[in-house]
Every structure is written in C-alpha cells, then in structure tokens.
Amino acid sequence: MRLLLAEDDHALASRLSERLSREGYAVDAVDNGVDAEFMGMEEPYDVVVLDLGLPRRNGLDVLRHWREQSRTLPVLILTARDAWQEKVEGFQAGADDYLAKPFHTEELLARLQALVRRASGQPAPELSVAGLTLDEGRQIVRLPDGGELALTGTEFRLLRYFMRHPGQVLSKTRLTEHVYAYDDDRDSNVIEVYINRLRHKLGRERIQTRRGQGYVMNA
C-alpha cells in the first residue's frame, strides 16, 4: 500500500515512517500543506495520514481541495485531543476517520487497515483470495493446505496489492506506483522479478500475464 504522511512534527513523522514501512507501507512524508496537496493530487495513494495543523496550508484546506478535485483517496486526519470542532470540520471536509494526539501507534495502524479494507470493498479482517490468506501482521501467506510462506517486504506489498484487486488487470506502471515510495528507484522491470518469485512460491497459475496489458491474479 502506498501511503502519504503529512506531519510537521519531524520526530513523530520519522517514528511513524519507520513503523509504517515495517508494516508494509510505501511511505512518502511531507511536512507542509502545499507539498501535501501537490503529492495527493499527483500520486496514486491508497491512504493518507493528514495532520490538520500543517504550516503553509492547513490540513482542512488541503482536504477540501482534494475533494473539490474528486480525489477520493481515504484520509485519516490527526487532531488535537480536545479540538472537537476540528473533528467536525474534518468530517465535513471529507475525512474518513480521525485520531486525536497523542495516540498509540497500534491504534493508528488498526484504523489505517480498516480504511484500506473498506476502500477496496473487502471489510473482512483477513485478506483471502482463492484459498490464499494474507496475514498482514506477520507478513506471511497461508496456503489452502494450511502451510505458511514467509514473504520479503516487496513480495508482501506486491501480493497484498494483487489480493486487494483480484481479477483486475494491473499494469506494471500501476503496480510500481503502489509498491514503491516516491523516492525509491522505480524500475518497472524489477516488478517482473518479484512476480516470478511469487509464482515460484504460490504456483504460476496464481498470477497470469496479459500481454501488452499487465498481470491478473485469479480470483
């Protein structure tokens, strides 16, 4: 999953970026509203963590501008603990959820997972497709026979994206955009390497190639 973190507290942003990356998110972090608005308009994020108290442009204005431009990406806003009015204004501007500071990182992770599940139309707590079950906490995949396979970070992000879009044709460009962060070396040819690794682990029939179009995970 590709995630935008807009937070001007650099210590907090650093801690969250590190933890979110360990949890399988490709994280882009910005520390002001102007950059946040631009990145949210230009990049295909799966979810956004947006602090409302950003410099240069506040988070509410950023969110309103996204929604005015029909950007429907799921947004979790961060507010001050007693700022109930901010929460109301955030929902009115188009926020999907909120979390008051200070917060426990585990709660943030749980809320983000719930947002992503709802956005993909798969609200169940575990992601299951064609007999495969993805354990997002342990970053492993369970097979129909009950066996478990460990995944590397990139394999996990790639398989999770396939499983959230079963039966859909996914181009290499789209996969690259959702598996890697903005500053990563985005060589789309490397995607083929990781798809072959997944096929070796899961069976070649799981992910099919559509020549000139991309790849499809059989549902």
For this entry, give a set of tags.
globular; alpha/beta; 21% strand; four-stranded antiparallel β-sheet; 42% helix; 8 helices; 219 residues; 11 strands
Q: What's a concise summary of this model?
A:
The chain has 219 residues and is an alpha/beta fold. It has helices spanning 10-22, 33-42, 59-68, 84-93, 105-119, 153-164, 172-179, 188-202; strands at 2-6, 26-30, 47-51, 75-80, 97-101, 127-129, 132-135, 140-142, 148-150, 207-210, 214-217.
What can you tell me about this protein's structure?
This protein is an alpha/beta fold and 219 residues long. Helices cover 42% and strands 21% of the residues. The chain contains eight helices and eleven strands. The two termini are 20 Å apart.
Could you give the topology of this structure?
Layout: E1 2-6, H1 10-22, E2 26-30, H2 33-42, E3 47-51, H3 59-68, E4 75-80, H4 84-93, E5 97-101, H5 105-119, E6 127-129, E7 132-135, E8 140-142, E9 148-150, H6 153-164, H7 172-179, H8 188-202, E10 207-210, E11 214-217
Parallel strand pairs: 1-2, 1-3, 3-4, 4-5
Antiparallel strand pairs: 6-7, 7-8, 8-9, 10-11
Helix pairs in contact: 2-3, 6-8, 7-8
